[in-house]
Amino acid sequence: MASQQFEPPSGTRDFLADALRRRERVFTQIREVFARYGFEPLQTPAFERLETLTGKYGDEGDKLIFKILRRGEHEATGEADLALRYDMTVPLARVVATYGSKLPTPYKRYAMGPVWRADRPGKGRFREFAQCDVDVVGSSSPLADAETVCALSDALDAVGVRDFTVLVNSRQALAGLLEVYGVPSDLGGGVLITLDKLDKLPPDKVAAELVDARSLSPGTAEKLVADLTAFDAVERMRGALAGSEAGRAGLDEIDRLLELAAPKVGKDRMAFTPRLVRGLDYYTGVIFEITAEGMPGSIASGGRYDHLIEALGGPDVPACGGSLGVERIIGLLDQTAEDGDRTDVAVTLIAPDTAAEIMGFAARLRDAGLRTEIYLASSRKLAKQLKWAADRRARFALIYGAADREAGVVTVRDMDTGDQSQVPPEELVAHLAGRCAPSS
Amino acid sequence: MASQQFEPPSGTRDFLADALRRRERVFTQIREVFARYGFEPLQTPAFERLETLTGKYGDEGDKLIFKILRRGEHEATGEADLALRYDMTVPLARVVATYGSKLPTPYKRYAMGPVWRADRPGKGRFREFAQCDVDVVGSSSPLADAETVCALSDALDAVGVRDFTVLVNSRQALAGLLEVYGVPSDLGGGVLITLDKLDKLPPDKVAAELVDARSLSPGTAEKLVADLTAFDAVERMRGALAGSEAGRAGLDEIDRLLELAAPKVGKDRMAFTPRLVRGLDYYTGVIFEITAEGMPGSIASGGRYDHLIEALGGPDVPACGGSLGVERIIGLLDQTAEDGDRTDVAVTLIAPDTAAEIMGFAARLRDAGLRTEIYLASSRKLAKQLKWAADRRARFALIYGAADREAGVVTVRDMDTGDQSQVPPEELVAHLAGRCAPSS
């Protein structure tokens, strides 16, 4: 076989120990935060019925769904009946539809796990990647929006993301904006899509696109872009939005969210951001994105989407939620291995007839919670086995040769300093437990 | 849509909070044990290239593989190019082939996660289910076999399985058995498959099958079955096996494993079991099964399989390993919700203008690690909100009405006793932290 055939399939990854432990650590930290907020975990199957997924992600999305061939006699038809999970929201809608009254009201759930998309793989873009969502289904309270923002922000703090900012806007404020600037209502959607590019393109390009691609009058386009990108954009917008009912309602929503999330997030880490659009058109209320110093793009986002659950096949219930860009966050966090990954004790075996005694030492150390490994290769040379202990990043090595046995002691070698001490077997645990961190 | 369409696909399950937390708790306990033994986690993708999996599980197995349709322009061909993971061993062989020298030697890894098989769903039989494997690749040391048995046994202790026994045998001992009883070598494989049924069928049925289906002479069949099922079967077998070279080598292997695993497992929880066969013919050395009081069948099994990694496409390296029947174990463990799942503090909201203050209380409680929930539905009636707090199994409810606010206190209600006390907001954390268990 060509060696390429041993690589994982295109766009997927094997996670060996260090990378996996780093991922799991981040997932655990996030889970702990969500649990403190009373979000409940939900895990749905890796695949859904094909018809549950098709038509939910647009034409482009549909093409990226991994479909599973029917089985047995139906395999030859070449038809699919199942498909791999594409996101966490459609399964949520299905669960709300299935379990309705058995779920708490509101249903606050988090979901964290892989999703699969047949995208062209690229730098930082995978076909199997983790998503991490929190949602509150069945509450229209502004507190639900605030709880979502607080939980995500708290999770970012927990995993060690520094200097992030929560950008806040509202779909109602955007509707008011279009109204106040006299954008014809049939052009509104396209105008917003173009305005969404203000953080990537220079203002004049955006203004040009508003005219060329969105048929907006040059005067309106220029004024809109100038006001949104001015140093005092927030004040200009607050002034402008006050002149529209939708605008005022939007500002109220925004201010309410800023007020309610402030005790946790802090006022200085949140900002009303009038040009924040969020591409997806299912949002109905407040929207937000979280950006961090040194990380291009956003690391979390979300908002209120009061009719999405129904559109996805569930009941018509108000809902809000957000996503952590957990793959990006893991990719950007410090990659250094941590002390917790070290082996506490590496047990050498130089005299084969001591194997059973050695297993006994290991059993006692492990019972005391120490991460203990036994030499399993075939060399009987101490130097080679100490090299192995060093490779395993062991704190201590145990040596139990004929002389040790005769003297009734075990030699404990500090692998960092090279110091050795003779310890009676019955004192091994007491001797080592205090000197090793608890294993995880 | 018919409501059945909201069910998860046939053979799969949605895990809601309680069930998922129970599963995760078991997984975490097992992971901690494996880590203490120096087994490293490995996570491979949910799918592999189709050709990596086909031909590895026999004809029956091949039919149960979930195949993924090619995408884009190739979708219409009805061909598959990927397939869902069917077990943890083939991906291990692929990883050993890919990362060879980058892996520690020996490579001790555990893998825990879902696999998918298109089996007919039934009671306790799923199409998506978790597997949990430990393996040592690259060591032929008897210590590696013992470490595997100890790690699995330790994991069973950790998750709370009581009264289990490790049944031990050896492929070499079985070869010796066939030799000593004069079974023609071409009949050996079939004879072992039939003998494997001794724990399900009465001895005379097994003897009859040996004659009818396996062409064994009636005298040999009867003697074999009688000796294997005698009350002193172990002594008879020890005597018989001493007369064959393979038999003696097998007994040595078995005794070595019993000796080396004894410090951890305990002599009284292990037993040489001459009639233990283990169906899979890739085992080459010691084999074992773990059975538990009150659980039919085995809850863990494994052995040495020195050429399997090569047969699966990897290099030719000695290896041994075992599997925990983690779905069965979870299914049989105590199903009661545990205290750790309780909400610590349920925060009511009866005066809407106190929302921001309430968010502040919640933020401080969560920062102190307390699992805290805020009332997000629309009622402003205290009775209804206390009902919600009870439904959430909260230990305490916070009440902050106009009178409380005026008095500068928060009312803390003990939900178990109904006792209420007035606490100044700045003392809330101190008041509650000691009375709630740390949230997990």
UniProtKB/TrEMBL annotation, chains A, B:
Keywords: Aminoacyl-tRNA synthetase, ATP-binding, Cytoplasm, Ligase, Nucleotide-binding, Protein biosynthesis
Cross-referenced PROSITE patterns: AA_TRNA_LIGASE_II (PS50862)
Chief location of this protein within or outside the cell: cytoplasm
SUPFAM superfamilies: Class II aaRS ABD-related, Class II aaRS and biotin synthetases
GO MF terms, alphabetically ordered: ligase activity
Coiled coil: none
EC number: 6.1.1.21
Catalytic activity: tRNA(His) + L-histidine + ATP = L-histidyl-tRNA(His) + AMP + diphosphate + H(+)
Protein name: Histidine--tRNA ligase
